[in-house]
């Protein structure tokens, strides 16, 4: 069964819909859609996506959503045309607030279980509590991903992870060595995930040894037009799932004016 899974940081789903996301949905036709920075209520997601489908005679979405503790912040979701079997939102110790940043959804594909995770890692800020929270989240994420990969199943971790792993992932990497998003301490977590735990970065596997393809561009200057970007939106798959991945594509808008988010959707086909 061929399934197209897409991940995108929508930077506020209501604004994304106003600015052109429905037209992209018509073209992309995802089977499973992982969203980050939803910044809306569950009823907003239901209204936006299912009213859109009703207008065009499409199949209704199954919607899972975990809101952030602080209203109007973060928020992750998994939308699917397949009915989910189960979902989980807990990450890290009970004293740690991961609300709106980690959502696991299980789907039955034949006799196999596919687990799709939408996650939004903190952007961080050097020398502030924001960076401390980012490290706490990366630590909890690393521990959970070790459990998942050790189980040997079909799992993909999707989302805006707010870290460029290598120099190939940021156009201006020399100017960001001391900034959140490209700190050695942050990148070390990704070394562990890929090099020690065995997760496959599907985007890098599809584009070895080249710059990008970038998935986020600053709103400052001409970053989008000059493609001065960052590759911080990922599909991290277990080896078993990565082996059936194909058609990796970054859906970069044709122009700055045609964007409906500051991030581009990242799509992959998985033949399960």
List the topology elements.
Elements: E1 2-9, H1 13-18, H2 21-28, E2 32-36, H3 42-56, E3 62-66, E4 76-80, E5 86-88, E6 102-109, E7 112-120, H4 129-150, E8 154-160, H5 184-197, E9 200-201, H6 202-206, E10 216-217, E11 229-230, E12 233-237, H7 239-242, E13 245-250, E14 266-271
Helix pairs in contact: 4-5
Shape: globular
The radius of gyration is 17 Å
In CATH, what is the homologous superfamily? Endonuclease/exonuclease/phosphatase
Instruction: Let me know the largest β-sheet.
Output: 6 strands, mixed
Query: Unreliable segments (pLDDT under 50, ≥5 consecutive)?
Result: none
CATH topology category name: Deoxyribonuclease I, Chain A
CATH architecture descriptor text: 4-Layer Sandwich
Strand order of the largest sheet: 3-4-2-1-14-13
- Quote the beta fraction: 25-35%
Tell me the series of helices and strands, N- to C-terminal: EHHEHEEEEEHEHEHEEEHEE
What are the salient characteristics of this protein?
single chain, 272 residues, alpha+beta, Deoxyribonuclease I, Chain A, 6-stranded mixed beta sheet, 7 helices
Task: Kindly describe this structure.
- The chain is α+β, with helices and mostly antiparallel strands and about 270 residues long.
- The protein has a single domain (about 1-270), classed as Deoxyribonuclease I, Chain A, CATH 3.60.10.
- It contains seven helices and 14 strands.
- It has helices at about 15-20, 20-30, 40-55, 130-150, 185-195, 200-205, 240, and strands at about 1-10, 30-35, 60-65, 75-80, 85-90, 100-110, 110-120, 155-160, 200, 215, 230, 235, 245-250, 265-270.
- The strands form three sheets. It has a six-stranded mixed beta sheet with strand order 3-4-2-1-14-13. A six-stranded mixed beta sheet has the order 5-6-7-8-12-9. Strands 10-11 form a two-stranded antiparallel ribbon.
- Helix 4 (about 130-150) runs parallel beside helix 5.
């Amino acid at each position: 069964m061929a399934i197209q899974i897409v991940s995108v940081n929508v930077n506020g789903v209501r604004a994304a819909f106003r600015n052109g996301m429905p037209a992209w949905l018509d073209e992309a036709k995802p089977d499973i859609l992982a969203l980050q920075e939803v910044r809306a209520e569950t009823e907003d997601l239901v209204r936006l996506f299912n009213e859109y489908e009703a207008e065009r005679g499409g199949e209704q979405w199954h919607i899972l959503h975990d809101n952030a503790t602080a209203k109007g912040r973060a928020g992750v979701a998994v939308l699917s045309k397949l009915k989910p079997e189960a979902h989980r939102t807990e990450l890290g110790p009970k004293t740690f607030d991961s609300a709106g940043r980690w959502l696991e959804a299980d789907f039955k594909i034949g006799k196999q279980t596919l687990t799709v995770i939408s996650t939004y890692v903190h952007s961080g800020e050097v020398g502030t509590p924001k960076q401390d929270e980012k490290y706490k989240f990366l630590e909890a994420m690393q521990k959970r991903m070790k459990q998942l990969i050790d189980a040997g199943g079909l799992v993909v971790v999707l989302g805006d992870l707010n870290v460029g792993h290598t120099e190939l992932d940021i156009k201006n990497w020399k100017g960001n060595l001391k900034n959140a998003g490209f700190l050695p301490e942050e990148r070390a977590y990704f070394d562990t995930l890929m090099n020690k735990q065995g997760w496959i970065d599907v985007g890098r596997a599809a584009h070895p040894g080249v710059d990008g393809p970038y998935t986020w561009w600053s709103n400052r200057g001409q970053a989008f037009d000059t493609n001065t970007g960052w590759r911080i939106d990922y599909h991290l798959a277990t080896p078993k799932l990565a082996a059936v991945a194909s058609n990796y594509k970054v859906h970069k808008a044709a122009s700055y004016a045609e964007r409906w988010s500051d991030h581009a959707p990242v799509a992959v086909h998985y033949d399960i």
